[in-house]
Design a protein that fits this description.
By secondary structure, this protein is an alpha/beta fold. About 30% of the residues lie in helices and about 20% in strands.
Amino acid sequence: MDQELTTVSSLEFPMNKSIPAIPGVTPKCRHCAHDLTLKLISLGLSPVANDYVEPADYMKAEPFYPLEAFVCSECRLVQTRDLLAASDIFRADYAYFSSHSSSWLDHAKTYVDYMSSRFGLGANSRHVEIASNDGYLLQYSLGKGINCLGIEPCESVALAGRKVGVETRIEFFGREYGQILRSEGWAADLITANNVFAHVPDINDFAGGIKVLLAPNGVATIEVQHLLTLMQRHQFDTIYHEHFSYLSLIAGQHIFSKAGLRVFDVELLETHGGSIRFFVCHPDASHAESPRVAEVLAKERTYGLDRDEVYIAWNESVKETKRALLELLVSLKRQSKTIVGYGAPAKGVTLLNYCGIGTDFIDFTVDRAPSKQGRYFPGVRIPILPPEAILQTKPDYVLILPWNLKQEIKAQMEEIRSWGGKFIVPVPKATIES
């Protein structure tokens, strides 16, 4: 996919580049406490993304919150407002199970093979995963005889992890809990934090916890969606209340340095539409700095992640992405075409609610996760059914909501081609694919 979809020079900048600071209203950066006056995007009012609606609650009201992202002009961390406590979002009934994605399982196995080989992990090593979910990753470390421990605050997925043999603590992670684990002998040779750093309101406490728990020459890898590709590919739907922060290497270096950690390597991945994996260690650890650190910093600065005007231009590009999707759906419905969705991801909640897409456009969506089936999308109230519903109803088009998994989904739904069905991919610009 071409990552240079929008160039800054192709858009006109509005005259007002920031909003004025208002005492008591203007948010503060969650890392450096700087006033946040530069708004990246406002996506209107949106429900909490993973609060799927039970049939019994279909007629009940649900809370909607402003969904806004700001840019810190000091450290360049992109972030949402603190509207909800993490404990109000990641509850016991949290419905995201990592093992339902075969491509994500492949990613996890590849990761464990790579880390154990690169850093010489074995029977005397300790591997701790923060946000271990349902044991999707640590199961592969267990298979290599590595001592493993999962930390997972959501009871529903933590219990699933225990069922596959992964020792899992139901806790939120930070300095205090990191110290408890270290006192128990869990100083970690490898700490894994995949797609959790963005979910943490107090990132300084979380990074500080990694510092406390990491063995003297240990390595922590932190994998998050990369702000650079989020902006290049117009992935506005990955902004939702559960994601408190959106990271670049520019911001990451500020955060980890403050925690007393050193970024010695980075990798750019295609997971989740484009991710960055930070490799961090103690400042005096033996790990040499990779040239990739300088290379990624150069890419970010070339795009303009250290300049206000780039963020301002992106705001308008998101509105155009919304218009293109609505124009396509309106055109198809006027031709009396049937459209359903595939997937019920958090990003789909942002997309559908921001664009105002309900059952007037999409009859239903499907998802492989039993925990979501029989429920409704928050806000727009689109029903979520098992995947077999697509084969039964034979729609003309399937809107792929977890677009980062489009190849996996197209392979699973290959049969729709037998009746002439096609797929719609909503971002970076709505397109029809066979």
